[in-house]
Write a structure and sequence with these properties.
Strand content: 25-35%
Distance between the termini: 100 Å
CATH architecture of the largest domain: Up-down Bundle
Largest sheet: 7 strands, antiparallel
Structural class: alpha+beta
Shape: elongated
CATH class of the largest domain: Mainly Alpha
Number of domains: 4
Oligomer: single chain
Helix content: 25-40%
């Protein structure tokens, strides 16, 4: 019995000694491993600039404050991915589409064009003799005239003298037939008919005013003279167009030319008659490429006996069988694409349940109506942003991810002096990876129209600074008015035209939203979106003056927001009197 007691005591002592020697070490190992894992996964952020995420502690590159540990699992995204708030998604009306593979509307390509006069049927009515226009019988442009209709009467001293010669020569036609014949031929050259000449000869009376008759039937498209004008022989009086047939001219891009041929059947539609389709055939494909637009003109002749088509009317064409082959093609909406000159970009929604996005470069093929063929970059089943693309791009820029203006990702380091490379219009900032794309080449006239938009934006911004919601509404309406006056025809480059169309849509949407509310908080929310897109516009096109891009990290519930200013001094439009000087200059656009 004593032996058993001794054994039990020995076992207990052994367990106790094992715990003393090895138990603490095991805990230490476990504790050490846990700390190692924590250290590996721990990210550090700034309380004032939550968009900053770094793998180790240090100071904020923006404000210099000491970084704090980020919440565990708060990010959980890949390096190039970023997340938007539900509020931002709703405000920008961001919409996505699943990429699918299918025939492009049953092998149909859509083109946009305009109705013009059939030049082959146009006529210029001229005066065949010099004189004074005594009467013009055409009252207005657009008036229809018939062949042989009296258009005008002219007093001609030359014709008056020629009639007298005829009367004299008629008395000598037996003795001097050659002279008589020459005088008659002279009058015929002035388009007098045999009956008119015979009447002068028979009556022996000289007419003072001679009529001008229409040589064709048609519609007067332009009056070139007025009553009382002196006209010369051969001078145009009227332009007359025969609108029984018209031309529909369509622009075909360079990479689409091989898909069309003369004789192809075309179905034409117009907004004036939405439920009707008109058939025609390709009559002509311009052999010369327009170097400004990189397009050629495709012409369709349309029957217009019922006067359906009016010159200047916009039309659409559907051309079947225009694809080179009948295999399926992968397409995406044109609204999903951002162009930077050399690159084409889209934004993928990488998580079906969360608003997580990532920029993706794509290689595009032909434009097929409102869509583009995709050769590389996206696949069937990818979800891409198709509305609010510029807003998503702005969020990527704000969070330091890859974006249209930032091909490498990473935040711009502030606190360093930067300069602008005037040759390439590139912002150069010490210690920064931000590389701005070259500004697009546009005319000074377009920049001046942009400047008018920018001036109204500044007035709107100043009203927000003063918490003056009434003037905010007025300024937003003025900005909308200036946007509608911007002439896209001044943009000759294809990419510039597309970029402006995308930006203009977002600018109008934000300005309209501001004009429809008197709530200053809602106005500021929409102002953030307005500023984002106008910054892109100014960077791409310029406004003929120096502009400052300024940023406040505390705006929009610490998400941060940008705005534009004419002055370097920071006057914050997002808080009114509460925080007028919060912010910093992020970029100077020369």
């Amino acid at each position: 019995m004593k032996n058993y007691i001794v054994y039990i005591i020995l076992v207990a002592v052994g367990v106790l000694l094992g715990w003393l020697f090895f138990g603490d070490t095991s805990n230490k190992v476990t504790e050490h491993n846990h700390e190692a894992v924590t250290e590996i996964n721990q990210m550090w952020t700034c309380s004032m600039h939550p968009q900053i995420m770094q793998p180790e502690p240090g100071d904020c590159p923006i404000c210099g404050m000491e970084l704090i540990p980020a919440e565990s699992g708060a990010d959980g995204l890949l390096a190039d991915q970023f997340k938007l708030t539900e509020n931002a998604m709703a405000l920008a009306n961001i919409q996505t589409t699943i990429v699918g593979k299918g025939m492009v509307e049953d092998n149909v390509i859509k083109l946009s064009g305009k109705i013009t006069e059939n030049e082959e049927a146009n006529t210029v009515q001229v005066s065949y003799f010099s004189g004074r226009l005594e009467r013009l019988n055409v009252s207005f442009t657009g008036e229809k005239v018939n062949k042989s209709q009296l258009l005008a009467t002219i007093y001609s001293p030359e014709l008056y003298a020629a009639q007298q010669e005829l009367i004299t020569a008629a008395t000598l036609k037996e003795s001097q037939p050659a002279l008589y014949k020459a005088v008659r031929n002279k009058l015929k050259l002035w388009k007098l008919s045999d009956s008119q000449i015979n009447q002068i000869e028979t009556s022996g009376k000289v007419k003072e005013n001679f009529p001008v008759y229409a040589t064709v039937s048609g519609t007067v498209t332009e009056k070139l003279v007025a009553e009382g004008d002196y006209v010369k022989q051969g001078q145009p009086l009227l332009k007359i167009a025969n609108l029984n047939t018209v031309w529909a001219n369509f622009d075909v891009y360079e990479n689409q030319i091989d898909r069309f041929k003369k004789g192809q059947e075309v179905i034409v539609t117009t907004n004036a008659y939405p439920n009707k389709e008109f058939k025609g055939k390709v009559d002509f494909i311009d052999p010369i490429l327009d170097t400004k637009t990189r397009t050629v003109t495709l012409r369709v002749v349309l029957n217009n006996q019922n006067d359906v088509f009016k010159p200047g009317m916009f039309v659409q064409a559907k051309i079947e069988g225009a694809l080179v082959d009948s295999k399926d093609v992968l397409t995406i909406p044109s609204s999903a694409v951002l162009w930077t000159g050399e690159r084409s970009l889209v934004y993928l929604k990488t998580d079906p349940d969360q608003p997580v996005f990532e920029m993706q470069e794509v290689v595009l093929g032909n434009q097929l109506g409102d869509e583009y063929e995709v050769l590389e970059g996206v696949f069937i089943g990818n979800e891409i942003v198709t509305n609010g693309t510029f807003t998503v791009d702005a969020a990527a820029q704000l969070q330091g991810k890859k974006s249209m203006m930032n091909t490498k990702g990473g935040k711009t380091m502030t606190g360093h002096e930067g300069h602008t490379d005037n040759e390439s219009n590139t912002l150069v900032t010490s210690g920064s990876d931000l590389n701005m794309n070259k500004r697009m080449k546009v005319s000074k006239d377009f920049q001046n129209q942009m400047k008018a938009v920018f001036s109204n934006y500044i007035a709107l911004k100043d009203a927000l600074v003063k918490d003056d919601s009434k003037n905010v509404v007025g300024s937003s309406k003025g900005l909308l008015d200036k946007l509608f006056k911007v002439d896209m025809k001044l943009l000759t480059e294809k990419d510039a035209h597309k970029q402006w169309m995308s930006l203009e849509k977002e600018l109008k949407k934000s300005a309209t939203s501001i004009s429809k509310t008197s709530n200053i908080k809602e106005q500021r929310n929409h102002f953030k979106n307005l500023s984002t897109h106008l910054i892109n516009a100014v960077q791409l096109f310029g406004v003929n003056e120096k502009v400052y891009v300024e940023f406040c990290p505390m705006a929009d519930n610490n998400e941060g927001a940008y705005w534009l200013s004419k002055q370097e001094k920071v006057i914050n439009p997002y808080f009114g009197d509460a925080m007028l000087t919060c912010g910093e200059v992020k970029q100077v656009i020369e």
